[in-house]
Amino acid sequence: MTVSSRSTRFLRLPTPRNLGYSFNWAGRIGLAVMLFWAVVAIAGQWLAPYPPGEIVGWDYFGGMSREFWMGTDYLGRDILSRILMGARYTVGIALGAVTLAVAIGVVLGMIAAVLGGWFDTLLSRLLDAFNGIPSLLFGLVVVAAVGSSIPVLILTLTAIYMPGSYRFARALAVNINTMDFVTVARARGEGTAYLITREIFPNILGPVLADLGLRFVFIVLVLSGLSFLGLGVQPPNADWGALVRENIEGLSLGAPAVVFPSIAIASLTISVNMFIDNLPTRIRDRSD
Amino acid sequence: MTGTSLVSVRDLKIGAVTDAGRKVEIIRGVSFDIAPGEILALIGESGSGKTTIALSLMGHARSGCSIDGGNIRVGDHDVTGMSEARRAGLRGTEVSYVPQSAAAAFNPSKRIMDQVIEITAIHKLMPRKQAEARARDLFRALALPDPDGIGQRYPHQVSGGQLQRLSAAMALIGDPKLVIFDEPTTALDVTTQIEVLRAFRSVMEKTGMAGVYVSHDLAVVAQIADRIVVLKDGEIQEVGTTEQIIHSPHHPYTRELLAAFEPVPHVPVGGRDVPEDRAVLEVSGLCAGYGATINGEPKAKVLKNVNFRLERGRNLGVIGESGSGKSTLARAIAGILPAYRGSVHLGGQKLEPALHARSKEDLRRAQIVFQLADTALNPAHSIGTIIGRPLSFYHGLRGAKRDARVAELLDMVRLPATLRHRLPAELSGGQKQRVNLARALAAEPELILCDEITSALDTVVAAAILDLLKELQGELGLSYMFISHDLSTVEAICDDVLVMYKGEVVEALPATRMSSEATHPYSRLLISSVPQLDTGWLAGLEQDPELVAAFAQR
User: Which chain A residues contact residue B443 at CB under 8 A?
Assistant: First the structure.
């Protein structure tokens, strides 16, 4: 039975579906929205109808009009342009931070699981202690001390989210580490680098990717939170969180200026989750 | 026949939907009857559908499966036509189930008595007092120690064999007409198995209930069943009385099963004189254990002063029950668990106890093969990568040379070379174990430590692996250290046997004269406990109760 299904597989075209990498509609919609925001983040500069920092309308908290599709903000700046430019900050900073956090966390986690002993204990306790500091408070202190700039924001967010990623990867790697194939590799005399890259990493990839997606969403939210407190991206530039903050007074007026940035945040975070939850089973459930 | 039978199954078809959305037929038109008070055995290899059929008698199909056709009648109830709520009412009172792993079937946080009488509470059969009294009667009938007090204990406070009997009590308390036993003794040690089988037999005889006994072990089934149904790939191959199936099977598949059961005595290949210094493995005073080390000794000591010697080209069997330290011995020799005392010499050369202290060359010369091929192969790597790694690691082979050697090794273990592009999940259990062997052979070792390598395989597949091992030994001059709890496997491949008990070697024997020459009481108990393919074996078996009390961990 396996043989026949195998031979037909070779005859078919190597489309994602035939290779077992297809995924369902919820995942595809998520991916489409993510790609849309990625394009906006790169090309927002040229797409924006007005310069984002310029006061173009005389009416503050203006409604939606043909001229200003998403209304104007508290100073009369075009919200659409500001959202398009804000995508760059939100997506860029969050992506940078999540990549760093997960990369460092996963590598340290796997090393701790493979080496065990005092290295594992020391690192785990250290990061646990670090994890105990409330994330917004930590961000507040760092930004207040060093000042806000994009590298500082990325590193701060990385520091906040790395311990969680470490814990997660370590827990997964500890399970894989006890499997017989890792024991066989150890008995063969393989070094730590081989064990983590070839034996363990491929088997924790699925859950780690899911974790990466979740962490990305958290980072977007914390970044928005920091900006909301005035510690994120500094004016006249603004990420989406900052847009919500500057225009919060408009909420009582029902201004689109506060609604649209919120929708942008929601659409990005939800679509990332939709995509991650519906990753191809081939990637997601590899270890099963 | 239909008028008198308790259970009748007609043209049963069960299908399943795979992860890929493909429909497969698991059971293809199975029909049989069970008379009241009769015990019917379902025999077959893994994947033959025996458990699926047994579960369908309760109207239950595992998730992803569905009963697609045919009908099942139990007593006056048409199980296939019922609503799920009515089926639930049937379970426990008409049909009940004894699972394979009693340890997994009991809730560790509740007292045993509460769990045993749960069925009477769910179906509101009798008041609690009466139910407890009935449970105590069952405990007595199942020969459990301290029948009045055992119900107050928690599951972890009784042994595995006792827990299995308690799960039978749980199944019997609702006074069902039919009891399904799903491989209830497979996970038990042989000495424990006897007691459990005896208890099952006597209680079934007393109550006169009908039973379905699912097993892959013909010898066990011969002790308890009246009739046997032989299954393969969801179809019945042969039905007959136990006597007929065992002594005059008609179907070729049944014959194959029986043939695989008969041990073929091993003829040593290295029969010629071996010089004294040609020991491939020499172990003296080996001690190893787990846990935190205090004064250089670990807290939990497993191996206690193990000594033996294995000549080149010969095979050593290590037998013993679970917890006897046989796997620990293999791990200590391989260096996975560093020994804290004693020495291991491989080919006359001393091996360091710890893995990282050993040289690559030392590691290459002794390879270890594990029991579960599923977990011993990295699911993310292709077969070619798995076998190729030791080639480049030990021998520095690259590219086309490596590929050619991989194909050669696959051929050695009788697998097609095209298999190297596949992932382990796409292979059968027997194929995986062959790949596992090929990986060990890739290192070109002198000694292979085989840790229960055939225990998880079906009898026919296991017999083929043993043949392969013998063949390879002839070609490559290997020596095996063969760890197993199954005496017939050891008999089939080994020259000498070590009997282990609680971390000590109690006796060393030549394998061919194992049953006649054993002198240590534990070895005798262990050897006499292996079920024989004879319906009268259990009834006629006599064991010294003092011996049993001293050694069996029941």
Answer: 188
CA atoms within 13 A on the CB side of A258: 16
Q: What is this structure's pTM? A: 0.79
Q: State which amino acid sits at residue A287.
A: S
Nearest to A203 among B19, B358, B380 (CB): B380
Q: Do B355 and A203 touch (CB under 8 A)?
A: no
pLDDT band at B482 (very low <50, low <70, confident <90, very high): very high
Q: Are residues B386 and B515 in the same domain?
A: yes
**How many CB pairs below 8 Å do chains A and B form together?**
55
Is residue B389 within 8 angstroms of chain A, CB to CB? yes
Residue B294 in any domain: the answer is no
List domains and CATH numbers for chain A: 24-284 (1.10.3720.10)
Nearest to B199 by CA among B138, B250, B118, B125: B138
Question: Taking all residues of chain B, what is their mean pLDDT, rounded to a whole number?
Answer: 86
Chain-chain contact of B368 with A6 (C-beta, under 8 angstroms): no
Establish if B425 belongs to a structural domain: yes
Mean pLDDT in residue range B185-214: 86
Q: Is the pLDDT of residue B1 over 50?
A: no
Same domain, B242 and B388: no
Closest Cα in chain B, distance from residue A125 (Å) = 20
Backbone angles phi and psi of B240, in degrees to 5: -170, 175
For residue B286, is it within any domain?
no
* Assigned token pair, B294: 């205090």
pLDDT tens profile A94-117: 989 999 999 999 999 999 999 988
CB B232 within 8 A of CB B48: yes
Instruction: Please determine, for residue A174, whether its predicted confidence score (pLDDT) is greater than 70.
Output: yes
B37 in Cβ contact with B208 (< 8 Å): yes
**Domains identified in chain B, total number:** 2
Residue carrying structure tokens 């090794």? B409
Summarised one tens digit per residue, pLDDT across range B67-118 is 888 889 888 888 888 888 888 888 888 899 998 888 888 998 999 999 999 9
> What's the confidence (pLDDT) of residue A283?
63
- Mean of the pLDDT values across residues B425-429? 84
User: What does the pLDDT look like over B243-290, one tens digit per residue?
Assistant: 898 888 899 988 888 887 776 667 665 544 445 557 889 999 999 888
C-alpha torsion B125→B131→B137→B142, nearest 10 = 80
Same domain, yes or no, for B99 and B186? yes
DSSP notation for B436-481: HHHHHHHT--SEEEEESTTTTS-HHHHHHHHHHHHHHHHHH--EEE
Residue B475 included in any domain? yes
* CA–CA dist A226, A244 (Å, integer): 12
**pLDDT value of position A244:** 83
CA-based Rg of chain B, rounded to a whole angstrom? 25
For residue A268, what are the CA distances in angstroms to A29, A43, A73, A150?
Answer: 11, 17, 22, 20
- Give me the CATH number covering residue B382: 3.40.50.300
pLDDT tens digits, one per residue of B342-382? 999 998 889 988 888 899 999 999 999 998 888 899 988 99
Strand partners, B290: B300
Q: Are B327 and B257 part of one and the same domain?
A: no
ipTM of the predicted assembly exceeds 0.90: no
Q: Are residues B482 and B397 part of one domain?
A: yes
Q: Which of B227, B261, B295 is the last residue of a domain?
A: B261
Q: Note whether B204 and B323 are same-domain residues.
A: no
Contact B147, B140 (CB under 8 A): yes
Contact B380 A202 (CB under 8 A): yes
* Domain with B237 in it: 7-261
**What is d(CA A181, CA B377) in angstroms, rounded to the nearest whole number?**
5
Residues B319-324 have a mean pLDDT of: 84
Q: CB–CB of A187 and B380 under 8 A?
A: no
- Residue B100 sits in the same domain as residue B21: yes
Mean pLDDT of B206-210: 87
